[in-house]
Design a protein that fits this description.
Elements: H1 2-9, E1 14-15, H2 18-33, H3 43-55, H4 65-70, H5 80-102, H6 109-119, H7 131-161, H8 164-177, H9 193-206, E2 215-216, E3 221-223, E4 226-228, E5 233-234, H10 238-242, H11 289-306, E6 307-311, E7 336-340
Antiparallel strand pairs: 1-7, 2-5, 3-4, 6-7
Helix pairs in contact: 1-2, 2-7, 3-5, 7-11, 9-11
The structure holds protoporphyrin IX containing FE.
The site of protoporphyrin IX containing FE has 21 residues, from helix 7 and helix 11.
Length: about 350
């Protein structure tokens, strides 16, 4: 609703929605993790924007970090990528200091972890949960939970502004099965199959997380006939899976219908033709999958209920092949024009 208030203020004008999306999703995560909301002038917001900007370069596969993988001793000679990694570690520590300082002391994730730490005393009186055990999940959730969804929704507004037919269809579905005034809830998923299909197609088409994170192979194994030794590092290419011509007809067309059965219901996750893994798979699957899907569904449906989005004065390609290479993919800067629905 914060987002919609901001959109209302920009009604009829061409604007870049990036900051509004970032602040809305960031505040959703901080409410969960710290029990507080922030403005754009706050230390936490500025640190996270700094981290988000910096993280894109050293982890970028075409960046200088690759040299360090091959010649790790370069770090002793002031290698710029190593220096950047060190500054990232510092920013991460700063983020934790702020989260620790700001937590509400009642019902948020960070406070729950601190309570668990106090209770985790072993026989010798030492805490089994160290500060690092508390910091890593909290900062991981803040970073992964914000950037992934911000970039996905930034892609969405660009795509939808160029697909008025799809936008109209979502609006018609929402109007018919929820109406213009009732608040949309996660329970509405079963009433809004087309809206759900749009969200699934968004996850496939954009594949903002093009790869899974790195996994170390624990024992010798075989994958698709290829021997893989214990200790090898693997990552799955989700982008390739989601744009493979043998699985998807015209993979670079945005077509929500590919996730619908002939009777209009959503194709079940176990369907043989649903080769969709935007959150990875297995024991290390994204911990935020349910949260992310629910939040995206609510945002797509709520937006359709209240606004119509069309292209603004600044345009950038919505086709994901044109997105700059980065840890999370998203389009270059663009603008939209939002009209509130009567
Ligand atoms: C559109 C949204 C999102 C996408 C596309 C996405 C995608 C992914 C992917 C592909 C992985 C790697 C899985 C693997 O290596 O097999 C991952 C891991 C992770 N994600 Fe997400 N994610 C999203 C939202 C979120 C949210 C909302 C949170 C937090 C609430 C989150 C927290 C994490 C964490 C902590 C990990 C590491 C899990 C581990 O190593 O065990 N993600 N995500």
């Amino acid at each position: 609703s914060h987002e919609l208030k901001e959109f209302k203020e920009h009604e009829g004008k061409s604007f870049n929605p990036a900051k509004i999306i970032f602040l809305t999703i960031f505040n959703f995560m901080t409410t969960l993790l710290v029990g507080k909301q922030y403005d754009t002038e706050s230390e936490l917001f500025m640190k996270l924007v700094e981290f988000e900007g910096e993280v894109r370069t050293p982890i970028n596969p075409v960046g200088k970090g690759v040299e360090l993988d091959i010649f790790p001793w370069l770090k002793y000679f002031g290698h710029p990528a190593y220096k950047k990694m060190q500054s990232l570690v510092q920013t991460k520590d700063d983020l934790w200091r702020i989260v620790n300082r700001d937590q509400d002391g009642e019902s948020c994730f960070a406070t729950a972890l601190c309570t668990a730490q106090e209770e985790s005393v072993d026989r010798d009186g030492a805490n089994c949960l160290t500060d690092k055990h508390l910091m890593m999940p909290t900062i991981d959730m803040l970073l992964a939970g914000t950037s992934s969804t911000v970039n996905t929704f930034y892609c969405y507004l660009n795509i939808i502004s160029h697909h008025p037919d799809i936008q109209t269809r979502i609006q018609e579905e929402v109007d018919q099965f929820v109406g213009r005034h009732r608040q949309i809830t996660p329970d509405d998923k079963r009433r809004l199959p087309y809206t759900q299909a749009v969200m699934l197609e968004l996850l496939r088409y954009t594949s903002v997380s093009a790869f899974t994170i790195l996994h170390r192979v624990l024992k010798n194994t075989t994958i698709s006939g290829k021997k893989v030794s214990a200790g090898a590092i693997l990552l799955a290419n989700l982008w390739a899976l989601h744009h493979d011509h043998s699985f998807w007809d015209a993979p670079y067309d945005f077509r929500p219908e590919r996730f619908l059965e002939a009777d209009g219901s959503v194709v079940s996750p176990s369907h043989v033709n649903r080769h969709l893994l935007p959150f990875g798979a297995g024991p290390r699957v994204c911990v935020g999958e349910i949260l992310a899907k629910t939040r995206l569904f609510l945002m797509v449906a709520h937006l359709a209920q209240c606004c119509t989005v069309s292209p603004g004065n600044v345009k950038s390609a919505y086709d994901p092949r044109e997105y700059p290479v980065s840890m999370f993919l998203s389009p270059k800067k663009y603008e939209v024009i939002v009209q509130m629905r009567q």
